[in-house]
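We store chain and fold; example below:
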Amino acid sequence: MAQLPHDPDEPRRPAFDGPPPTLEEELAAAQAGAEPTPSIETVNEELRDGLNRCPKCGSTDIQLRASTGQLVCLFCRHEWQEERVEEEFGLGHGIEELEGTVIASGAADIRADVADVVTFKCGGCGAEVSVDTTHAMNARCHWCRHTLNVNEQIPNGAVPDAVLPFKLTKEEAITRIRDFAGRRRLFALGRFKREFVPENVFGVYLPYLVIDAHAESQYWGQGEVQTRRWTEKQGDNNVTYYAADVYQLERRVAYVVDDLTMEGSSERATIAKDNTNNIINTILPFDTKNAVQWNSSYLVGFNSEKRDLNVEALKPKLEDQLLSIGRSQVQGSLQKFNRGVRWEQEKIDVGGSRWVAMYLPVWLYSYRQRSNGLLHYIAVNARTGETMGSIPVSHPKLLLASLTVGTVLEGVAAALLVASA
C-alpha cells in the first residue's frame, strides 16, 4: 500500500507507539508495587457525633432555605452555610501538578459488606437512634427530639465530600415545569394533559463525581483537501464528482479539565429503554464551584440517591470524554481539510486526576405512559433553572399535522406554478 504524504504545514510526530494499557494491565501494575493511592480527607469534623447544632442557639432543628442557599435554624431563625470546598480543601488550583489518581475520602471505594443502617448515641440524652441511609440521612431521637444526622463517611456511598445546595424553590420549579409542558401541549397525549399535576414535583440530590485532570492526547488519521469538482450527465441524472489530495495527519494536544461531572449512580449513567432519565445530562452544567462541605442538614426535606459507582469503574468513561475534549481542541488546526478528517487511531495519557464525590440538586416531575410503560421525566437544574424533559406525544395528532403541512405546501407550490405560467 502506498504511503500517504504528510501535511507539509505540520511538524512530524513520533510514530504511534501502540495502544494504551488496558484497565486490567493498569491494576496489575498498581498491585505490583505502585505507591498507595493518595487521598484528600474531607470529613466535617465538627459534625462527627451526628448532631448538627445551630452555631447561635445550639438547636438541632435545621434545614435548608432554598431561596438563600443557606441553612436556617427553625428555633432562632439564624442562617449560615458550610465552607466552600474549593477553598476549604484547596480544590481550585494545582490541577497541572496532579500526579496519579487523587481521591477525596467521600469518593473512596464502596464496600458491599457495609450495612446501610447506622446507629448513633444521642448527644442530648444518650439514647441509641438508628438511621437507614437507604432512605434518609437523619432521624429524630424518640426521647429528647434532637435531630441526628449521618455525617461520618461510612464506606457505603451515602456520604459524599460536598453538596451543592438547592437554589430554586419548589414554586419556581413548578412554574418552569408548567411552562415547559405548556409549550408542548399541542401534540401531547390527551391522558398526559388530563393527569398533568406539576405540584407533584419533588427535589432530589443526585450523586456525581466531579473531576479535575490534566492530560495529553494524540490522534492519527487522514485528511482530504478538495482540488477539483465537476458534474457529468448520466442518463436523466447529473452526477457530481470530486478530486482531492489525501494527507496523513498526526495531532497532539495537552489540556486541563476543571470540574468535569460524571454520574455516580449506575442507574442514571445507563440509558435505559423504559425511561428517559438521560435528560439529566441535558440540564448540565451545575455551578459546582459553589459546593460546600458536607452537612446532612442540607438534605432535610429532599430525597437523595446513593452513589454505587467507584472511581475505577468510571476511568474508561473519563478517558472517552477526555479524548472527545482533545478532538475538539485540535479542530481549529484542521480547517484546510475541506473534505473532512477521519481519525483512525487515538491515545490518551492522563497525567493526573482528582475525584470528589458531590450531591447535585434537581427538581423532577415524572409521568408513566400507560400504553407502553415508558417513564417520562421533566427535570429542572435547581441552581440555574435549565429545564428539559420528555412529553408523551399523540401520534395521530402528529400525523394529522404533517398531512396538513404537506397539503399547505403542495397548495403553495401549485399557486406558484400557476403564477409563473
Q: What stands out?
A: DSSP finds seven helices and 17 strands in the chain.
